[in-house]
Amino acid sequence: MTDGPFRNMPLNARWKRYGEDLVNDAKSLDERVARAGDAMLANVDLGEIAMLVAALREYDNRLQLDFDPLGSIQRIIEQHDGGCLTDELARNLMANLHSQTPLATAIDNALTDIAADLISSSKNRLDVHCIEARELGDMKAAEYPTALARNRDTFAAIDAAKIANALEMGDRRAFAVGLKKKVGTDDGPDF
């Protein structure tokens, strides 16, 4: 892959394709949303997060008279080490539980919070890459304002609930439909 404004950035192929879409007038907002969502989910250990959430949901379903529910939940969390996003989920969950939120609601809120944080941090990181690409000359100065505006619009359009659901279900292909190649004469860009 030698084209695109992120060709010299330390990004995986999915993010580089997203960079190409930012400066391509033929790509619609929906296509950029699908590309960004796919790239975000590719960088996450979905399996570990999904297993943790499933274990927490199972505990919630069988929760009876546990004299130390926070301790039991903490033990479940410790059995699932999936990296920084799992740690963030655990921190959010425990904060929600300490405020007396029911476990099912605390899980939902924690998933939504980490999805929103993932969207925000990804957007900010891509803004920085746009700046670096412009400074390197990989992105034309005329394309830069458009790329930043499209990046902002793209991440504003990503549904945090869809990301949260993909995290819970371990669904790496949540955005795959939007990435399907258009082959027919009626399948042009969506403006």
What would the keywords be for this entry?
mainly alpha; 8 helices; 191 residues
Task: Give a written overview of the molecule.
The structure is a single chain. The protein has 191 residues and is an all-alpha fold. The chain contains eight helices and no strands. α6 runs antiparallel to α7. The protein starts with 12 loop residues before the first helix and ends in a 22-residue tail after the last helix.
Tell me the layout of helices and strands.
Elements: H1 13-22, H2 29-42, H3 46-62, H4 69-78, H5 84-98, H6 103-136, H7 144-157, H8 160-169
Helix pairs in contact: 1-2, 2-7, 3-8, 5-6, 6-7, 6-8
Largest sheet: none
Into which percentage range does the β-strand content fall?
Answer: under 5%
Distance between the termini: 27 Å
What's the rounded overall pLDDT mean? 88
Order of helices and strands: HHHHHHHH
The total beta strand count reads: 0
Q: Note the total helix count.
A: 8
Give the helix proportion (percent range). 55-70%
Radius of gyration over all CA atoms, rounded: 19 Å
Q: Kindly name the structural category.
A: mainly alpha
Query: What characteristic shape results from the CA principal axes?
Result: elongated
Task: Report low-confidence residues grouped into runs of 5 or more.
Answer: none
